[in-house]
Amino acid sequence: MSEPKKKQGSVRRSGKKSAEREGHFLEGQVLVAMPGMEDERFARSVVYICAHSSEGAMGIMLNKAARVRNFPDLLEQLKVIAPKDRISLPAAAKEVQVLSGGPVQTDRGFVLHSADFFIDNSTLPIDDGVSLTATVDILRAIASGQGPDRAVLALGYACWDAGQLENEIQHNGWLHCPADPAILFDRDLDTKYLRALRSLGIDLASLSATAGHA
After folding, report:
1. What is the spatial distance between Cα 92 and Cα 129, in angstroms, rounded to a whole number?
2. If 17 and its partner were Cys, which of 13, 21, 138, 167 is the partner (CB 3.0–4.6 Å)?
3. CB 41, CB 63: distance < 8 Å
4. CATH of the domain at 52
5. How many domains does the chain have?
6. What's the whole-number mean pLDDT along residues 106-121?
7. Mean pLDDT to the nearest integer, 145-157
8. Secondary element (H or E) of residue 197
9. pTM for the whole structure
């Protein structure tokens, strides 16, 4: 089992990923649902795109809480900690939010986190400041105080087939913008949608009035 590493430097990316970025793929960007979003599962949602290529896309929804009450509860359910160890959890572990990351594989956990933490062969660097890890090792690291500085745990994810996301954007389903760390990691879920719109210089009232018009 690989040992987690803290405070790693920037990870060198492959030529393939560089080519994808030049091809205007949205990896590392945030999607903001338009008011006319037809899929109710994504109404008023903010989604961080973790992977995007010609083969499709995968992302984590950032502004919907999971049904699991809190992160310590989840650690107990997964037997990462024993009930008696809950009181000694680091403060940072107690503050990790558990999100509903999307409708696919809702029983699987994904930790979106700051890039100061890395596990060989398990952590996916997304951009210079954000990574994704989907193994129980990162939960153990967070529980022991050796995890990333900032993290959220998502249960499930969103995904799109080849060309599907591009088609939804073209038909006014989504806006997109660079990811703000506050949008990714802060605990104020109820305001993330409006804040994401404001980061694009958009007022929801005016957007609602013009949605669907060319």
Report:
1. 19
2. 13
3. no
4. 3.40.1740.10
5. 1
6. 95
7. 96
8. helix 192-199
9. 0.85
Q: Which of 69, 56, 71, 54 is nearest to 16 (CA)?
A: 54
Instruction: Centre a 10 Å sphere on the Cβ of residue 170 and count the other Cβ atoms it contains.
Output: 10
β-strands 117-119, 29-33 pairing = unpaired
Residue-level pLDDT at 202 = 85
Report the 10 Å Cβ neighbour count for 147.
26
Q: Please answer whether residues 49 and 28 qualify as being in contact, where contact means their C-beta atoms are separated by less than 8 angstroms.
A: yes
| In the block, residue with structure tokens 């009930």 | 83
Predicted confidence (pLDDT) at residue 10 exceeds the cutoff of 90: no
Query: Mean pLDDT throughout 125-148?
Result: 95
Report residue 162's pLDDT band, with 50, 70 and 90 as the boundaries: very high
Say if CB 184 and CB 130 are below 8 A apart.
Answer: yes
Domain of 106, in residue numbers:
4-210
The contacts of residue 10 (CB under 8 Å, 6+ apart) are 115, 128
